């Protein structure tokens, strides 16, 4: 999605919100004569440098610091997130205001699709057990599962979900999607059902029992928070696996643990967690059939450079009053509450 950027008043001050590291190649912004200043801030200092800034680059990927600093945003017109999901930026004042938000849609689509395929193959071919046996120097022959012919339900029909669907179809899997609106024909998913258990129309209650793999790739919104709860797991096949590459809070972890123990599903791959890093005392670390990874499904070699290049393109558009790339519909992406 693009949007015509409203005219701005020169000079333009840019703030870069970062954590431990700065954007690679960020020196190009310091040298841009069209910028009056480039100010760097961490979560603790954002409120000090935000006054007078027209643009904010959120490089501290999941920071919620802008909400606390919002009263200082007296000139802010545009926020660009170095992420695909923007739930950390969707607080009341932002959603109700005129500040344009853009994201980094497109950078992560194919890498995340490849990661999901890797997890599917890992589950089907029982690679975790193979590695465990190798470490113990044990030769134990087993039979594994086919990938081709299996069925996947991808919840989230945006660009990432579509890339996942195409990747899984390429290895012979059948795929259907779940999104806000049901539709019988879709070029990537075939069929899309409504992503809700609370509906009289065909939706997750009918789709979940069909799936060998359930992939969560939806944004975190009020409607998707804790989507995968006890009722969700009760509808899954006891031979199915859950893969979450969306947001940790899509899954009710307090419901997932007992569902796994009760063998309501065979396994889960969690690239995201409610609390990150996943606490050391979480039972998910040691549960059979569970794969935990540190929010890395979209992070391939060179991904940081791609993120900065996308921001640089959008900054050029902003400074030239052109249409911005990846404008977020703030009302559709809004998450209320903590």
Automatic annotation (TrEMBL):
* Uppermost EC category: oxidoreductase
Q: Where would I find the D-isomer specific 2-hydroxyacid dehydrogenase NAD-binding domain in this sequence?
A: 117-297
| The protein's Enzyme Commission number | 1.1.1.79
Specify the D-isomer specific 2-hydroxyacid dehydrogenase catalytic domain's residue ranges: 41-328
Record GO terms (molecular function):
glyoxylate reductase (NADPH) activity; NAD binding
Q: Give one Pfam hit by family name.
A: 2-Hacid_dh
Q: Which UniProt keywords apply?
A: NAD, Oxidoreductase, Pyruvate
Does this UniProt record's set of keywords contain Ion transport?
no
The entry sums up its family as follows: Belongs to the D-isomer specific 2-hydroxyacid dehydrogenase family.
**PANTHER family in alphabetical order:** 2-HACID_DH_C DOMAIN-CONTAINING PROTEIN, D-ISOMER SPECIFIC 2-HYDROXYACID DEHYDROGENASE NAD-BINDING DOMAIN-CONTAINING PROTEIN
Output this protein's name.
Answer: Glyoxylate/hydroxypyruvate reductase B
């Amino acid at each position: 999605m693009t949007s015509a950027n409203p005219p701005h008043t020169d000079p333009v001050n840019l703030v870069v919100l970062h954590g431990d590291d700065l954007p690679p190649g960020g020196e190009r912004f310091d040298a841009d004569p069209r910028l009056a200043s480039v100010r760097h801030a961490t979560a603790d200092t954002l409120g000090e440098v935000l006054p007078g800034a027209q643009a904010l680059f959120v490089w501290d990927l999941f920071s919620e610091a802008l909400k606390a600093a919002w009263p200082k945003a007296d000139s802010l017109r545009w926020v660009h997130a170095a992420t695909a999901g923007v739930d950390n930026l969707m607080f009341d004042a932002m959603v109700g205001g005129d500040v344009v938000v853009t994201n980094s849609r497109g950078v992560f689509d194919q890498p995340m699709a490849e990661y999901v395929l890797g997890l599917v193959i890992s589950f089907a071919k029982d690679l975790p057990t193979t590695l465990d046996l190798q470490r113990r120097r044990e030769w134990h022959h087993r039979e594994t599962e086919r990938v081709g012919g299996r069925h996947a339900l991808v919840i989230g029909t945006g660009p990432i979900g579509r890339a996942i669907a195409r990747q899984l179809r390429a290895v012979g899997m059948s795929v259907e999607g779940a999104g806000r609106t049901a539709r019988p024909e879709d070029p990537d998913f075939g069929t899309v059902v409504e992503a809700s258990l609370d509906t009289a129309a065909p939706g997750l209650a009918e789709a979940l029992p069909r799936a060998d793999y359930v992939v969560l790739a939806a944004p975190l919104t009020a409607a998707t928070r804790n989507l995968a709860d006890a009722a969700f797991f009760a509808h899954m096949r006891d031979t199915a696996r859950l893969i979450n590459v969306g947001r940790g809070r899509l899954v009710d972890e307090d419901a997932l643990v007992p569902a796994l123990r009760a063998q309501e599903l065979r396994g889960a791959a969690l690239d995201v967690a409610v609390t990150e890093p996943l606490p050391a005392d979480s039972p998910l670390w040691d549960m059979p059939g569970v794969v935990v990874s540190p929010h890395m499904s979209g992070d391939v070699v060179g991904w940081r450079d791609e993120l900065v290049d996308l921001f640089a393109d959008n900054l050029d558009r902003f400074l030239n009053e052109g249409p911005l790339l990846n404008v977020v519909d703030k009302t559709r992406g809004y998450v209320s509450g903590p």
